[in-house]
Design brief:
There is one protein chain. The protein is mainly α and 258 residues long. The chain folds into two domains: 129 residues, no CATH class; 126 residues. It is built from nine helices and no strands. Helix 5 packs across helix 7. The chain starts with a helix and ends with a helix. Belongs to the cytochrome b family. InterPro entries: Cyt_b/b6_C, Cyt_b/b6_C_sf, Cyt_b/b6_N, Cytb/b6-like_sf, Cytochrome_b_C_euk/bac, Di-haem_cyt_TM. Its cofactor is heme b. GO terms for molecular function: metal ion binding; oxidoreductase activity; quinol-cytochrome-c reductase activity.
Length: 258
């Protein structure tokens, strides 16, 4: 029941697009409502998507083999390197086995812990659940979406969220990648994690005071923290350039003695 209505609500967001919105929704559904064609399409997508992720993982490993990885300090160095095998291989293998054991434990003993109780009810398109929520890993997105009362503005804000996250590696270019020596950056990063957890919590709450106001404040804080991290990265680069000695105009012994 919850999966049916969650799919209906999420796919209906495309109807907010002008002119082509309704056509896109009907194309996603394969009908004029969520029906068997919709189930077949999304089942095929969920079946093929893990293979796409596996392909991207191979591309990542190939890039890691060619260009190497960063170090904890975020400093690029071609000395004192560590081989991928067996060091990182064993480290990643231990983490993969631990996550697999946790997944097997949840599936074997608590299969419903991350699900919604309404999914035990057969799907009924004529009965709308009182409180529709997405899966737990999309709750933070849902909280941002419903913080804007306008449907089109909410969809645009969700697009902006993923656009900002995609551009963040190019916008956040600090002089030193490692956060060990950047206390303010660490504080902003932990504040962003706390705001993410707050959005996840608010996404599961009903649309009523004070959760609506808290969601709007958390949404503003989310974008504000991302922007502050990017500005701080540029400020770090500017300060590093302002106080870096000009080696082209100073004798070598003066630079070394300084």
């Amino acid at each position: 029941q919850m999966s049916l209505w969650g799919l209906t609500v999420i796919t209906s967001l495309a109807s907010a697009l002008p002119i082509v919105g309704t056509s896109i929704v009907h194309w996603l559904w394969g009908a004029f409502s969520v029906d068997n064609p919709t189930l077949n399409r999304f089942y095929s997508f969920h079946y093929l998507f893990p293979f796409l992720l596996a392909l991207l993982s191979l591309v990542h490993l190939a890039a890691l083999h060619q260009y190497g990885s960063t170090n904890p300090l975020g400093i690029q160095a071609q000395t004192d390197l560590v081989d991928f095998y067996p060091y990182f291989y064993v480290k990643d293998l231990v983490l993969a086995l631990a996550l697999s054991a946790l997944l097997a434990f949840l599936v074997g003993f608590y299969p419903e812990v991350l699900g919604h109780p309404d999914n035990n009810i057969p799907a009924n398109p004529y009965s709308t659940p009182a409180h529709i929520v997405p899966e737990w890993y999309f709750l933070w997105v849902y909280a941002i979406l419903r913080s804007i009362p306008n449907k089109l503005a909410g969809v645009a804000l969700i697009g902006l969220v993923f656009l900002v996250l995609a551009l963040l590696p190019y916008m956040h270019r600090p002089n030193c990648r490692g956060p060990q020596f950047r206390a303010l950056h660490q504080a902003l990063a932990w504040a962003l994690v706390a705001d993410f957890c707050l959005l996840t919590y608010l996404g599961h709450q009903p649309v009523e005071p004070p959760f609506v106001t808290l969601g709007q404040a958390a949404t503003v804080a989310f974008f504000g923290l991302l922007g502050a991290m990017c500005v701080l990265a540029y400020a770090d680069g500017w300060l590093a350039g302002a106080y870096r000695p000009n080696m082209s105009k100073q004798p070598l012994h003066n630079v070394l003695s300084a």
